[in-house]
């Protein structure tokens, strides 16, 4: 399962600096995972060259696009409500407006959107964004437009994304697309296709562009970054069939991570998301070696029960996961580990649930993303397993997981009391104009008085107080990263 931006599928309308020669207006919203937000930046870049400027005013848009998520039913229902809103505006205010659906829902519900419900003019899958100019021409000629063909090669490595709604400090850099891990609950392999990696030089060039324009932090992004491998192109599953020379000279994730760390020593580096079965010890040593690689690993586990892990087709056991956790903490002592967890997967018993809680007690994650199971049509679990856990039982188990995480989060933030941490300032605090907010290397939010510091500064902050999710402190001095 890919990690979501806020895991509540809350949309974000995105805007960039406009070109004065462009006359058409694009309104684009993104929902769900970080990859969707990154893809929206690619879409905006393509459409900028087609004469579109972005707008935050829905009613004035010539083209409205929603970049969608299919990970959970709630995300899909949220998008449907937005489509109702778009069509109401189109009917009552702006009849020339065209509406399109991008992303995972587009791939999964293409016929339903265009033919049955007739609520959109265009449906574009995650690998078809370069075809947008042709699809827009189809719409102008009065025809519905659709392209949801999954690609075996497309990585968008040749497109320089525009940075939408950016703070000018942090940016996503996609390094892989697709997923080969056929978890039974997840639609990603069906909506985004097989794993393929992006050419390393194009990644380094994009990071260089970000550095040159003042960005201080990048997140290397993919459904499963640890499986990154570049051997000249092609699907990851075909790596074993590559020539001996290709295999010998291949760039794997730990090598890419080190290339970025060495090439940009003053830039902070994050990555997401990891899969336990694909995380190798070499990656851990690279993280420990370079101070500009953040000491945070998002390591979804989904369940603490071996039986449920097998039903999910998670290719690791509880014991293997715990050994990996021990290894991570041994090699990176100051690491922050975070989780994804599903409550109420089909056939889950009370003992299975207790196994999840005991695993959480063992790890004591810093924070996590926790949900009730949501059956996704087309997945193996959706086809083969009855959604047999009562909704009230799911809700109760989820609440117990959330309560446990809240306790563990408080434990982890309290560990920072009295410490001095390096913070990259990202924004003014939501609660006070006199405070700044940023994250430390462990990806925990830190708030401190503004004084003379500004967004984009690296600041050493001594932690004096905390909540279960936030560190509070006083600035000591600028960091050496400045």
Automatic annotation (TrEMBL):
Catalyzes the methylthiolation of N6-(dimethylallyl)adenosine (i(6)A), leading to the formation of 2-methylthio-N6-(dimethylallyl)adenosine (ms(2)i(6)A) at position 37 in tRNAs that read codons beginning with uridine. [4Fe-4S] cluster 1 binds at residues 33, 69, 104. It is found in: Cytoplasm. Keywords: 4Fe-4S, Cytoplasm, Iron, Iron-sulfur, Metal-binding, S-adenosyl-L-methionine, Transferase, tRNA processing. Its cofactor is [4Fe-4S] cluster. This is tRNA-2-methylthio-N(6)-dimethylallyladenosine synthase. It is an enzyme of class 2 (transferase).
């Amino acid at each position: 399962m890919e990690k979501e931006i806020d895991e509540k599928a809350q949309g974000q309308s995105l805007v960039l600096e406009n070109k004065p020669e462009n006359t058409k207006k694009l309104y684009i919203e993104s929902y769900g995972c970080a990859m969707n937000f990154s893809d929206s930046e690619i879409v905006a870049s393509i459409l900028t060259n087609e004469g579109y400027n972005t707008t935050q005013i829905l009613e004035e848009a010539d083209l409205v696009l929603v970049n969608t998520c299919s990970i959970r039913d709630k995300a899909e229902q949220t998008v449907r409500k937005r489509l109702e809103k778009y069509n109401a505006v189109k009917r009552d205010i702006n009849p020339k407006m065209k509406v399109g659906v991008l992303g995972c829902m587009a791939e999964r519900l293409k016929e339903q959107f265009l033919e049955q419900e007739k609520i959109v003019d265009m449906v574009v899958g995650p690998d078809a964004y370069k075809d947008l100019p042709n699809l827009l021409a189809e719409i102008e000629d009065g025809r519905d437009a659709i392209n949801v063909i999954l690609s075996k090669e497309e990585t968008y490595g040749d497109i320089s994304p525009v940075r939408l709604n950016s703070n000018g400090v942090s940016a996503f850099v996609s390094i892989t697309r697709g997923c080969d891990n056929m978890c039974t609950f997840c639609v990603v392999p069906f909506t985004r296709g097989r794993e393929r990696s992006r050419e390393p030089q194009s990644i380094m060039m994009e990071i260089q562009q970000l550095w040159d324009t003042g960005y201080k932090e990048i997140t290397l992004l993919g459904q499963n970054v640890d499986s990154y491998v570049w051997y000249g192109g092609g699907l990851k599953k075909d790596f074993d069939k590559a020539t001996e020379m290709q295999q010998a000279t291949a760039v794997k994730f730990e090598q890419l991570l080190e290339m970025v760390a060495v090439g940009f020593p003053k830039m902070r580096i994050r990555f997401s998301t990891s899969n336990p079965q694909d995380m190798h010890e070499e990656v851990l040593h690279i993280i420990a070696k370079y101070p500009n690689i953040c000491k945070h690993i998002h390591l979804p586990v989904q369940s603490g029960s071996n039986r449920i892990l097998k039903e999910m087709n998670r290719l690791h056991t509880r014991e293997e996961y715990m050994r990996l956790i021990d290894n991570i903490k041994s090699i990176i002592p100051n690491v922050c580990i975070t989780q994804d967890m599903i409550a109420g997967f089909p056939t889950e018993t009370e003992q299975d649930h207790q196994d999840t809680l005991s695993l959480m007690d063992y790890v004591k994650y810093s924070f996590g993303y926790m949900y009730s199971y949501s059956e996704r049509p087309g997945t193996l679990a959706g086809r083969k397993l009855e959604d047999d856990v009562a909704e009230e039982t799911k809700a109760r188990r989820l609440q117990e997981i959330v309560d446990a995480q809240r306790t563990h989060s408080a434990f982890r933030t309290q560990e920072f009391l009295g410490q001095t941490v390096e913070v990259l300032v990202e924004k003014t605090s939501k609660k006070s104009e006199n405070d700044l907010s940023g994250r430390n290397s462990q990806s925990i939010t830190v708030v401190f008085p503004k004084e003379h510091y500004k967004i984009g500064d690296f600041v050493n902050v001594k932690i004096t107080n905390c909540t279960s999710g936030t560190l509070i402190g006083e600035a000591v001095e600028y960091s050496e990263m400045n």
